[in-house]
Fold Peptidase.
Amino acid sequence: MMRAALLTLLLVAVPAWAISRDDAARIAQERTGGKVLAVEQQGTLFRVKVLKSNGEVVILKIDAGSGEVH
């Protein structure tokens, strides 16, 4: 009984991300029109580095739960 309760607690405590790394890259590319250089997950955010057509490199932070760009 205790084991089942612990397993349930662990399943609830582990976040289920609403978006994947690929989703974050797609969101960043669509938002900037640039080329995605890198995607890193930092806690609940994806940090996406993008090279824009004008040569500028920008970093977008995208919420892994909602897909919202910060």
